[in-house]
Write a structure and sequence with these properties.
This protein is mainly beta and 98 residues long. The chain has one helix spanning 40-50, and strands at 2-10, 22-28, 35-39, 53-57, 63-70, 76-80. It has a six-stranded mixed sheet, covered by helices on one side.
């Protein structure tokens, strides 16, 4: 299964790495239109341990794969692979309403 990340929620604390501010990610499975919202760690685990595939798209429809990463002290987070844009694909997503 692959999912398109459509929105994020962030906490209000300061983070040296802004990706760590992401607490939840909203998504859609474009094949069956199933939607959901999971924590950053749930999506991290799904990608890392269950071979899940997640991506984001920009306004032009270009896809950027979401990958797992860890800080030097072991905090797990998500980021996108480098693509043609200079903006942060995940942090550029709108806030989830639900």
């Amino acid at each position: 299964m692959s999912i398109k990340i459509t929105c994020i929620n962030k906490d209000n604390d300061y983070h040296a790495n802004p990706n760590l501010a992401i607490t939840h990610l909203g998504w859609i499975n474009e094949i069956d239109q199933q939607t959901g919202k999971n924590t950053r760690l749930e999506i991290y685990s799904w990608i890392k341990n269950e071979n899940g595939y997640a991506y984001v798209t920009d306004g032009s429809g270009n896809k950027a794969k979401v990958i797992t990463a860890e800080t030097s002290n072991g905090t797990k987070y998500l980021k996108t692979e480098a693509d043609n844009t200079t903006t942060n694909n995940l942090l550029s997503l709108p806030e989830c309403k639900i």
